[in-house]
Design goal:
The chain is of the alpha+beta class. It has one domain: Alpha-Beta Plaits (2-Layer Sandwich), CATH 3.30.70.20. 23% of the residues lie in helices and 22% in strands. It has 2 helices and 4 strands, in the order E-H-E-E-H-E. The protein has a two-stranded antiparallel ribbon. Strand 2 and strand 3 form a beta hairpin. The chain is globular and about 30 Å long.
């Protein structure tokens, strides 16, 4: 499974890193950054889906 973050669509709501802090962090301006290279680590699949499902800007997508 891969996770993709569209940084242009991110508005900095913070839901992704609040819900999935092992996968996301914020930059100095409060926008999301991925902590992984795109490959979701084993056991973090539910956290990746949770972040994608809760992004109000649909900036996070999951590729199976």
């Amino acid at each position: 499974m891969r996770i993709v973050l569209d940084t242009d669509a991110c508005q900095g709501h913070g839901r992704c890193y609040a819900l999935s802090p092992d996968l996301f962090d914020t930059d100095d301006d409060g926008y999301a950054v991925l902590l992984v290279d795109g490959e979701v680590p084993a056991g973090a699949e539910d956290a990746a889906r949770l972040a994608a499902d809760n992004c109000p800007e649909f900036a996070i997508t999951i590729e199976d």
